[in-house]
Amino acid sequence: MALNPTDLFDIRSLLSEEERMIQDSVARFTDQKVLPIIGDCFDQGRFPKELVPEIAAMGLLGSSLPEKYGCAELNAVSYGLICQELERGDSGIRSFVSVQSSLCMYPIYAYGSEEQRQKYLPGMARGEIIGCFGLTEPHGGSDPANMKTVAKKDGGDWVINGAKMWITNGNLADIAIVWAQTDEGIQGFIVEKGTKGFEAQEVHKKMSLRASVTSALYLDSVRVPDSQRLPNVKGLKGPLGCLTQARYGITWGPIGAAIAAYTSALEYSKERVLFNRPIAATQAVQLKLADMARRITLAQLLSLQLGRLKDAGTMQPAQVSLAKWNNCRMAIDICREARDILGGAGITTEHPPIRHALNLESVITYEGTETVHQLVIGREVTGINAF
Ligand code: TGC
Ligand code: FAD
C-alpha cells in the first residue's frame, strides 16, 4: 500500500480519537474558511478578523485551560495539532491564536488572581476580549532582562512608562499584558485599551506576517490600580514561562506551513512538463521532495514526543528550544525550496510557498531567534552560558 506523502510514518495512528477529531475539524476550517481568502489578505496586509468568532466557537482560544473559565480543556497534543492546521493556512492565523492563548490567557490563568481570571478568561475564550503581550522593547528583544519599561508604585496604583515593539495583535487588542521592571523585579500588568497614556501604533511596510497585526505600544505615565498587576509571579521567569507555552505551539505550527508548501510543489512538479517529462520525473526534483518529506517526518515526531512530555508534565524549556529551532529551520528551508520548484509561478501569492516562506522569516525570529535557541542548547549540553 502506498504511504501518505504528508504522513510517511503514519503518525496519525499515534493520536487518540479525540486528537484526530480536533485535527480534522481545524483542517476543515482552514480548507473552507482560510485558504480561499488568505492570499488576498496577505496581499492587502489585512488580518481576517471576521474569522475570530468561528475560531472562538470551535474552542481554539485558550484551548488548554479549564472548562470552568469557558475553555475547552484539551491536552497539549491537541493544542499542537490546532497550531499545525491553522498555520497550514497562514502563520498570521496561528499567531493570533498563540498570542491570545499562550501569551495572554495563560499568564492570567497561571499568575493572575481568581478575580482576574473570572473577569477576563471567559470573554477571551469567546473572542470578545482580545489580548496582546508586550515583552520586546525597541532596543533589543533577545535580552528581555535588560528591560527599560518601569512600573513605580504610587499609593494603591502603579505608574508605567516605556515602549514595546513588534507586538502581535497590538492594535486589535482590548487588553495588553505589559511586562515592566519594578523595585521587586519584573512584573506583569493587565493594561486595558483606552487607559490614559497607553497607545498602540501599527507597524507598516512588513514583508512578513502581512495577514497579522503588528504594533508598537507606548506607555506614558499609564496609571493602573494594583488589582491589574498579576500577583503570583515576579522576575523574568514570568514572561519566560509564557514563552515556553507559546514556543511549544510554534514547534507544531511550521509543520503545517511546510506541509502546505511541500504539497504545492509535489502537485506542481507532476504537472509541469519540461524536456518532455514532468519535472517530478527528474532526479534533482525527487531529491528535493524526498528531503522535504524526510524533514517533515522528523519534525512531526519531534513535536509529538514534545507534546507527550508536556502532557506528562516533564517537558523542559531546552527541549522546546531544540524543537522550535529545528522545526522553524525545517519549514523555512522547505518553503524556499518549494518556491524554487514552482519557478516563476512561485513568486506570487497564487501559490502558498512564498507567503509561508516570508511569514517564517518572522516565526524563526520571534519567540526567541534561531541563535537564541541554539545557545540555549549549547548551554544545556556544555553547562556554559555563552549569551
Ligand atoms: P535566566 O536569567 O537564566 O532565567 C530567569 C528565570 O527564568 C527561568 N527560565 C524559564 N522559565 C520558563 N521557561 C523558560 N523558557 C525559561 N528560561 C528560563 C529560569 O529558571 C530563571 O528562574 P529563577 O526562578 O531562577 O529566577 O534567563 P536565561 O539566561 O535562561 O534567559 C536568557 C534567554 C536569552 C534564553 C532569554 O532571555 C530568552 O529566551 N530571550 C528571547 C526572548 C524572546 O523569546 N522573546 C519573545 C517575545 S514574545 C514574542 O515573540 C511573541 S510572537 C508571538 C506570535 O505572534 O505568535
Ligand atoms: P535582537 O534581539 O536585536 O537580535 C538581533 C540579532 O542578534 C539576531 O540575529 C539575534 O539572533 C542576534 N543575537 C542576539 N543575542 C545574541 C548573542 N548572545 N550571540 C549572538 N547573536 C545574538 N514580541 C513580543 O513581546 N510580543 C509579540 O507579540 C511579538 N510579536 C512579534 C511579531 C513579529 C511579526 C515579529 C517580527 C516579532 C515579534 N515580537 C514580539 C518580537 C520578537 O520576539 C523579537 O523580534 C525577537 O525576540 C528578537 O528581538 P529583536 O528583534 O530585538 O532582535
From TrEMBL:
UniProt KW keywords: FAD, Flavoprotein, Oxidoreductase, Transit peptide
Cofactor(s) demanded: FAD
PROSITE patterns: ACYL_COA_DH_2
Domain (Acyl-CoA dehydrogenase/oxidase C-terminal) ranges: 235-381
Catalytic reaction annotation: glutaryl-CoA + oxidized [electron-transfer flavoprotein] + 2 H(+) = (2E)-butenoyl-CoA + reduced [electron-transfer flavoprotein] + CO2
PANTHER family from the UniProt entry: GLUTARYL-COA DEHYDROGENASE, MITOCHONDRIAL
UniProt keyword Transit peptide present: yes
Gene name per UniProt: gcdH
Coiled-coil annotated residue ranges, if any: none
Pfam families xref list: Acyl-CoA_dh_1, Acyl-CoA_dh_M, Acyl-CoA_dh_N
UniProt pathway annotation: Amino-acid metabolism; lysine degradation; Amino-acid metabolism; tryptophan metabolism
Protein name: glutaryl-CoA dehydrogenase (ETF)
Keyword Transit peptide: yes
Domain Acyl-CoA oxidase/dehydrogenase middle: 132-222
